[in-house]
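May I ask for a single protein's sequence together with how it folds?
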Amino acid sequence: MMQHTDRDLLSIPQVESLVSRAAGHSRIVLITVAFLTAGSVFFALKLEPIFDVKDFFDSNSEMVIGLDKLDEHVGDNGGEPGAVYVKGDLMDPSAVEAISDFIESLRDIDQIAETPSGSVTAGLNIVNVSRLITASPDTMSAILSETGKPINDVNQDGIPDSKEQLRTSLDFSIERGVLGPGGTQTLTSEQVRQAIFLSDEGEHITSIWFQIPGTRDQNVVAATERSIRPKMESLQGHNSISKVGLTGSPFTRKAQLSASTRTLYTSLPIALSQPPSF
């Protein structure tokens, strides 16, 4: 038979008194519980995953092994690729200049790698394709010969000076590529198409690719996103740019992990808020 200690006997009236008071103020108790639950859910939704991907994925999976190898071989000079895509009237030279300024601003983000050649981007976009065109006398001469339209770059920023000139130079390069000495191709037409999608409706798209070392650590990905978002918002403020978005495997994975962790964080306070069933 269970024996009660003196302490147990003394605590029983106290518990009964607490229960009685709670029952007598049920409305206050319910409101208090509701506020506590709402607060728990609110702060749970603010939490971000900060763990290593090995904490969530199989450490022997191809993804985790690939990230390890990438960090091992390229170090701080490269990493997992992310991308910002830009949509709008990209035949406006001032929009291309704004994209160029955005690319330069990526140097301010510590988590983005700078290649040994000093570049913060990987791959082609409308800015470097435009500069390759204006830097190629063979391409400029071929455009003039075939279209009768000269391409000018008076301020020498590597961007044709008018919408018509920019569209003419890109239309040519999408069909013929960017030419080098003797008619050889510096860029193929396919490479130019991958750098920019030209639409007859006036909403063109280009992507700016960059590399992030150490993306196995979710803190690195989160810090990169926090740093790049204000720069993206500033770019989207340009009158000729309608949409600026962030994509790439690090950010897609972060979104998936955030959704999973939020589910875990919110399930506990919601479960605690449910009355016990007997």
